[in-house]
Amino acid sequence: MDGFPVKMTEAVCLGASLTLSGICYYLYRKSRTTLDKLDDAPHFTIDGKLKDILKVTPGACLQYAVIEGAVHPVGEPLTSPFQKDFVGVLQKFMLREHRLVWNGLSRTWTDSERVLHQRVNAVPFVLVGSNETAVKVLCPLQASGVHMETTHEKFHQVNYGLGDIIGQYLSGEKLKGQLETEEMLKVRTDRITFHWNYCGHVCCCHSCYQALPHRRCPICRQDISRVVPLYHV
């Protein structure tokens, strides 16, 4: 009977380990299946044909599909307060605290990090195709793997006095400083002007369009009847 508690403990540990392994394997297979479906997902061009495909699809919904288009903010895009030339549709601010913590077992200082503040801004945007057909992005913040470009990064280092150094060794913690970052899903600041005059030529930026001596397309020389700004990532 003396060995029974040990065997029971081993059985409980083994059961917990098998359960945890099963859960991890299930999550892995689920993610792997999703990735395989995304790899095999059909690519569609944003045009009138996409509408026709949705009409004949049950529920007018494509479970996995890849579409590409120009990013066009609905309204004014977001502007970086650090880089005035950078505009985007997603913006993420983060302030992290970095400090060193004394590890008594290894007798070394180890890095530690925690988030002090985080804020995410977003504006509605659409993906525009070649013939002005648009797909509205409803939940960009729920997307995984969104490429956010770092537009600002600054480390605020802490200056120590003698009293601070003594206090750090007594407490076992050293504050290194705070890292301030900004990430954005950017659109280009040089807006490409789409001359919608039955020719559909995309041929100059907004500044060049303003400098044209005559409101005619530089390529086909037709009169310009409409101008639409496009934004590209």
TrEMBL record:
Top class in the EC scheme: transferase
The UniProt record lists the keyword Zinc: yes
PANTHER family noted in UniProt: MITOCHONDRIAL UBIQUITIN LIGASE ACTIVATOR OF NFKB 1, RING-TYPE E3 UBIQUITIN TRANSFERASE
UniProt keyword Cytoplasm present: no
Protein name as catalogued: RING-type E3 ubiquitin transferase
InterPro entries: MDM2_MDM4_MUL1 (IPR051652), MUL1-like (IPR022170), Znf_RING/FYVE/PHD (IPR013083)
Major site of localization recorded for this protein: membrane
Organism: Sander lucioperca
Keywords of this entry: Membrane, Metal-binding, Transferase, Transmembrane, Transmembrane helix, Ubl conjugation pathway, Zinc, Zinc-finger
GO biological process, one term: protein ubiquitination
Domain E3 Ubiquitin ligase MUL1-like intervals: 97-188
Superkingdom per UniProt: Eukaryota
Gene: mul2
Catalysis performed (reactions): S-ubiquitinyl-[E2 ubiquitin-conjugating enzyme]-L-cysteine + [acceptor protein]-L-lysine = [E2 ubiquitin-conjugating enzyme]-L-cysteine + N(6)-ubiquitinyl-[acceptor protein]-L-lysine
